[in-house]
């Protein structure tokens, strides 16, 4: 019985000080607020180690879901690109890290023509033409 | 020494002898747990196997080796409980009973449970310090995982499936008449699309990509750092797609697989550490019947952030 009591108290002592090997993490602040835009789709680029999320307003949405046959002024797209980083708690997952650029594309109706207006925040190594092309032609990801 | 004292001593000694004998007899006759035959042993490179045998086999296999103290009363029932539970979760000796998908998922989970300090059980390593996985052991496991990563490659079939799903969706889009509800009472919440994105992830272990949303309560909790515990009313949604490699080599969401929920209610869901778990499969949003306690036991690896994994951290 003494043994058992000793054993039990040992268990109690060890259980109470058991701790993980994970080091303490610090959460990253959010650098981007969607300001009411919705996610159209997402993209991974493993060569450059980045991942991005494409947002749009409702006109952009309609286009990305094939509802409009021609472009209309007023479509707004925002492409937020993050660095990929290893997930702190799950080996095998890569999560979005630091924001490296936020690109905005607005399609404006000017004198009967649709004019794309492109702006960029956090100027990163953006390939402007490729980004515009991507934003104008992305199809929506399936969202239930 | 008085006679009285001697007599008292005698009684104490006799009682002690009786007690020890009883415990010994009980212990010798205690079958803590039976070892069933090994029917489908896991196949792994020798160094990887060695790490697992040394640290996990006492509980997760049919080759349990017990020590004398495992046979003591109480200790025996604790060991029995742990081993029974552990074998039920997975059993290296009956590994072939699992599907290739389950096997793959478990291997990554094992590493992550060890890395989080959840496995082997701390109560066990306290008495078997040699069973702790060393940093070398961890890197052996990690190197092995690197060889079984799922590398997405362009796949015409997958593209076709994704395209047909998309076309059905955009051509017949209508809000569902009634929202699906899980067995534990969690209803699909289409309004998640108006919530802030919490994070996005790319999985190397199973070829999927995900977008996570946080409702206003959860988002505010993250921003103010109040996530231990998360406030009641927090909801986190996760959407899971197959990865699809495009002509340019970029990867985009392919076939939609499922949507998963974590809903905070510390009373209602106290059996799963205050989080209600639910999963709805395919565009039909069929409630998944997997037990929420399974979800919760894996989410244990994120105990540092209130059981939520997908929060971006600073290096």
UniProtKB/TrEMBL annotation, chain B:
InterPro entries: Cytochrome_P460, Cytochrome_P460_sp, Haem-bd
Domain (Haem-binding): residue spans on this chain: 14-149
Pfam families linked to this entry: Cytochrome_P460 (PF16694), Haem_bd (PF14376)
Name of the protein: Haem-binding domain-containing protein
């Amino acid at each position: 019985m003494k043994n058992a009591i000793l054993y039990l108290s040992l268990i109690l002592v060890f259980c109470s000080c058991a701790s993980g090997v994970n080091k303490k993490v610090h959460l990253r602040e959010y650098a981007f607020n969607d300001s009411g835009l919705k996610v159209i789709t997402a993209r991974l680029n493993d060569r450059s180690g980045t991942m991005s999320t494409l947002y749009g307003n409702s006109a952009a949405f309609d286009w990305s879901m094939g509802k409009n046959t021609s472009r209309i002024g007023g479509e707004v797209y925002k492409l937020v690109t993050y660095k990929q980083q290893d997930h702190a708690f799950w080996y095998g997952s890569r999560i979005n890290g630091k924001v490296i650029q936020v690109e905005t594309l607005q399609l404006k109706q000017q004198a009967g023509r649709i004019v794309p207006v492109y702006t960029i925040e956090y100027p990163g190594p953006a390939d402007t033409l490729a980004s515009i092309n991507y934003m104008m032609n992305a199809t929506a990801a399936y969202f239930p | 020494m008085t006679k009285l004292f001697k007599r008292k001593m005698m009684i104490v000694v006799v009682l002690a002898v009786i007690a020890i004998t009883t415990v010994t007899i009980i212990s010798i006759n205690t079958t803590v747990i039976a070892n069933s035959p090994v029917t489908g042993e896991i196949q792994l490179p020798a160094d990887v196997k060695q790490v697992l045998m040394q640290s996990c086999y006492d509980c997760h296999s049919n080759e349990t080796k017990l020590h004398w103290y495992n046979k003591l009363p109480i200790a025996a029932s604790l060991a029995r409980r742990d081993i029974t539970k552990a074998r039920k979760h997975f059993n290296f000796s009956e590994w072939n009973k699992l599907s290739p998908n389950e096997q793959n998922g478990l291997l990554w989970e094992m590493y992550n449970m060890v890395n989080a300090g959840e496995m082997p059980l701390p109560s066990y390593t306290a008495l078997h310090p040699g069973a702790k996985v060393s940093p070398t052991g961890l890197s052996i496991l990690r190197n092995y995982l690197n060889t079984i990563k799922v590398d997405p490659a362009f796949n015409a079939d997958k593209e076709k499936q994704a395209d047909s799903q998309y076309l059905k969706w955009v051509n017949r889009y209508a809000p569902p008449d009634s929202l699906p509800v899980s067995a534990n009472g969690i209803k699909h919440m289409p309004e998640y699309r108006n919530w802030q994105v919490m994070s996005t992830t790319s999985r190397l272990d199973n070829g999927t990509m995900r977008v996570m949303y946080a409702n206003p309560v959860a988002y505010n909790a993250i921003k103010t750092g109040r996530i231990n515990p998360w406030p009641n009313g927090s909801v986190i949604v996760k959407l899971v797609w197959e990865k699809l490699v495009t002509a340019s080599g970029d990867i985009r969401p392919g076939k939609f697989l499922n949507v998963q929920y974590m809903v905070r209610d510390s009373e209602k869901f106290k059996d799963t550490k205050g989080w209600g778990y639910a999963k709805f499969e395919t565009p039909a949003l069929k409630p998944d019947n997997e037990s929420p306690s399974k979800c919760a036991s894996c989410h244990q690896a994120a105990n540092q952030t209130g059981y939520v994994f997908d929060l971006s951290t600073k290096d």
